[in-house]
Amino acid sequence: xxxxxxxxxxxxxxxxxxxxxxxxxxxxxxxxxxxxxxxxxxxxxxxxxxxxxxxxxxxxxxxxxxxxxxxxxxxxxxxxxxxxxxxxxxxxxxxxxxxxxxxxxxxxxxxxxxxxxxxxxxxxxxxxxxxxxxxxxxxxxxxxxxxxxxxxxxxxxxxxxxxxxxxxxxxxxxxxxxxxxxxxxxxxxxxxxxxxxxxxxxxxxxxxxxxxxxxxxxxxxxxxxxxxxxxxxxxxxxxxxxxxxxxxxxxxxxxxxxxxxxxxxxxxxxxxxxxxxxxxxxxxxxxxxxxxxxxxxxxxxxxxxxxxxxxxxxxxx
Length: 317
Prior knowledge:
This protein has helices spanning 3-18, 25-36, 51-59, 78-82, 116-128, 163-166, 180-189, 204-215, 221-236, 246-262, 274-285, 299-313, and strands spanning 41-44, 67-71, 83-88, 93-98, 105-109, 130-133, 136-139, 145-150, 171-173, 240-242, 290-291. By secondary structure, the chain is an alpha/beta fold.
C-alpha cells in the first residue's frame, strides 16, 4: 500500500467513526491511530461521555472479521474470557470451546470491575496474541485488538489495573464532555432510529496491510535518539517513581509512525519527525508512569502533566 493510499483510508475510517461520536474528532483520530498502530486502547473517563460508543464504532470498522464484547463484572472468571476445555464422552477426549477473547476486536467494557485473576488472564493474550489454557495453546486472530473502558472516578466494586496490564495498552485516551454544539446535535438525534449501517470499514487483511504500511515509515537516527531520550527521562524524573518500559518505547514509535502518515496532505516525502513523537507521547506514556506522592489531583492529570514537563525539557536534536 502506498503512503497516500494509507492517508485516504485513514480519513475514511475516521469519518465513519465520527458519525457515531459527535464533536470528538481529535479523540477519534487518536483511537484510529491506535488501531492502525496494531495496539490496544484504554478509554478512561466518567460514565455517559461515549466510551462504549467509540469502542463499538471502532470495532465496527473491521468488516468480515469477528468482534466480541465482554462486560466486566466481579464474578467473571478467566474461563469466561479465554474459553474452556470440556471432556466429551463420545470420543473420550477434551474439546476446547473458544471464549470471546478469540476475535479480531474485543470490546471489554468496565474492565476494572474484573477481579485480578481475571485481569491477569488477559496478559498473555494482549502481549503474545495467544491463548494458553488447560490442554490448549493457540494463536489469536491477526489482527487482534482489545478496547477496554473504565471509569476512574468510581472505586466501589472495582480493581485498579496493575502496571503490568496498563503497560500492554498502547494508548489511553479520555473523551471529556461534548461542547454546546455537539450536545445540541446529540439532543436532536435522541430517539431517532439510526439509519442502515454504511458499507465501509476495512477487512482484517486490509487492516494488516495498513499496519505494515505504517511500520515502513522511515526513521532517522536522530529521531530514534529523541524517542530514547524521552523514555529515559521518565526513569530519572524526580516526580516519577516508575518510568516507561522498553515496550512503551516500541509503542511510542509505532503510534508516531501512524501520526506521521496521518498528517501528510499530498505526495510529499514521508518520514518521522520529532513533532509526530510529541503528538502521541502523552497518550502512549502517561498511563504507564507511577508518580511519587499524591497532590489531590486526579492521577491521570498528574501523569499527563509529567509527560508534558519531559517534552518541554528534552531537547530536539
